[in-house]
From TrEMBL:
Residues 25-48 have a biased composition (Basic and acidic residues). This is Translation initiation factor eIF2B subunit delta. It comes from the Eukaryota. Pfam families: IF-2B. Residues 1-48 are annotated as: Disordered. Belongs to the eIF-2B alpha/beta/delta subunits family.
Length: 426
């Protein structure tokens, strides 16, 4: 009788040990978030070019043979920087190999490399039109589904365009729109019907989100221009140019101050076009902004993207112009289409940016006698930095003029969140 309780205790211990593991697993399941994010929804990490292991993998998948630039700035080593002109000969040699890439996509890549196509809207339209031609010539291989195979084709085209030049944020939104439309194609559609549907979607995106959106922005912005105004702009934005031309057609009397900067000197082309239209203009460089700002009544600027925290991602120098205008009490009006809005939050222009050709800064248009940086690459202690974009804080922006109306920078997350279903690219 005395031994039986011991056996009972041993059996109880065994039962307790068997019950414990399920309890631990229940705790783990309780700690998981209720809405688990799928792998498709998680964006892929950006390529860090200071990671040698990732760079080796990227070179194996690369279509182009690119040589890394010398004397790179250490703070921006995570961004791609290649010797200018090294990609072009290799790309031209593969132009007549249609098995690797569609000719229209090759043509756009060449134009990106040479700089013939610049500007957010122009680059996005050229990419979508190239995809439209590729879809028109596409035929589904045997034993494959159109939606899956075409999505893989578009992904290969996108990776090729990224090798030619990093994508803008607006181009990324357009690619998401196109892939979303491909995945939502009904299986009952034939190949010709599916291709016609995708082509009409691309045409509708270009028309509604870029062309018509620009006209709506012009109609809103013209109401902010009065007679005897002095309007300042920086660089060359297509939407801002349309605003000035439409205001001039309405008979409003104003003067435009075009601020420009090296090395692109985009403002010179804008100046010629505005003067040809009969608009009174003043041309100056960015180092004289504080000198001429006391005459300015309003500042109109373009944007490459507007981020979720209200900051504006635009061509380098925009933040300096907005800061000077803010210090002088001049309102800054940012003109941007809604398809360029992005849910990303960015506080600086270091983590995410694009590096241009450093030789463009060393070149001086007057002649070789003034080019003191001619052989700068031979000096190991000299590093030239040519940034493409910068970040303008929301404190320096008075108003955003979009195709959804005129709104403050604090309303950007509302647009991104509430109109997510209406925006066809998400």
């Amino acid at each position: 009788m005395s031994k039986q309780p011991k056996a009972g205790k041993a059996s109880l211990k065994k039962d307790v040990t068997q019950v414990k593991p399920p309890v631990a697993s229940d705790k783990k399941t309780d700690e998981r978030p209720p809405d688990k994010v799928s792998k498709k929804d998680v964006p892929q990490p950006r390529m860090q070019f200071d990671d040698a292991h990732r760079v080796i993998k990227a070179k194996k998948r690369s279509v182009l043979n690119k040589s890394e630039a010398q004397n790179r700035v250490e703070l921006f080593r995570h961004l791609p920087q290649y010797a200018h002109g090294t990609q072009l000969p290799d790309l031209e040699s593969k132009f007549f190999q249609p098995d690797l890439m569609h000719p229209s996509v090759y043509k756009v890549g060449l134009q990106y490399l040479s700089g013939d196509i610049s500007g957010g809207n122009a680059r996005c339209i050229a990419m979508l039109l190239a995809f439209r031609e590729a879809i028109n010539d596409y035929s589904t291989p045997a034993e494959k589904i159109l939606s899956r195979d075409l999505t893989a084709k578009i992904s290969s085209y996108v990776s090729f365009l990224i090798e030619c030049r990093p994508l803008s944020i607006s181009m990324g939104n357009a690619i998401r729109f196109l892939k979303n439309r491909i995945t939502k194609l009904p299986l009952a559609l034939s190949e010709s019907e599916a291709k016609a549907s995708l082509q009409s979607d691309i045409d509708r995106f270009i028309n509604e989100k870029i062309i018509v959106a620009g006209k709506v922005i012009v109609s809103h912005a013209v109401t902010k221009i009065r007679d005897d105004d002095v309007l300042l702009t920086y660089g060359s934005a297509s939407v801002v140019e349309m605003i000035f031309e439409h205001a001039h057609e309405l008979g409003k009397k104003f003067r435009v101050v075009v601020v420009d900067s090296r090395p692109n000197l985009e403002g010179q082309g804008l100046l010629r076009r505005l003067v040809a239209k009969g608009i009174s203009c003043t041309y100056t460089h960015i180092n004289a902004v504080s000198y001429i700002m006391h005459e300015v009544t309003r500042v109109f600027l373009g944007a490459s993207s507007v981020l979720s925290n209200g900051t504006v991602y635009s061509r380098v120098g925009t933040s300096s112009v907005a800061m000077v205008a803010h210090s002088f009490g001049v309102p800054v009006l940012m003109c941007c289409e809604a398809y360029k809005f992005h849910e990303r939050v960015q506080l600086d222009s270091i983590c995410f940016n694009e590096l241009g050709d450093p030789d463009a800064i060393s070149r001086v248009p007057r002649g070789e006698s003034f080019s003191h940086l001619k052989n700068w690459a031979d000096n190991e202690n000299l590093h030239i930095l040519n940034l493409k974009y910068d970040i303008t804080p929301s404190d320096y922006v008075s108003m955003l003029i979009t195709d959804y109306g005129m709104l403050p920078p604090t309303s950007v997350p509302v647009i991104v969140r509430e109109y997510r279903r209406e925006h066809v690219w998400i």
